[in-house]
Amino acid sequence: MNAAQAENILNSDCGLGMEYPPTARIADGKPADKASWPWQSSLQVDGIHLCGASLIGSQWLLTSAHCFD
Q: What is the pTM of this model?
C-alpha cells in the first residue's frame, strides 16, 4: 500500500463505501477502485484471487471456511 492509498483509507468513514454496490450483485457488476471498500480484502495465492474477506478488527479478517478446504 502506498501513501495515497493509505490516505484514502484513513480519510474514509468507517463502514461507508465510496459508491453504492451494483444492484445486479456479481452478474453485470462493476469493477471497484482500489480502497473504495476499505474493509473488504482479497485472499490470494501467487497473485490469484481465491476468496474475499471482511476486516472485523485491527488485525482480524473474517472469511468462509471453504476458502481453506
A: 0.47
CA distance 13 to 39: 11
As a whole number, mean pLDDT of residues 9-34 equals 60
Strand, helix or coil at 14? coil
Per domain, the residue ranges of the chain are 3-30+38-68
Written as nine digits, the cell of 53 is 474477506
What fold is seen in the domain 3-30+38-68?
A: Thrombin, subunit H (2.40.10)
Q: Give dist(CA 58, CA 30) in Å, integer.
A: 28
Grid-cell match 474477506, residue found: 53
**According to DSSP H, which parts of the chain are helical?**
3-10
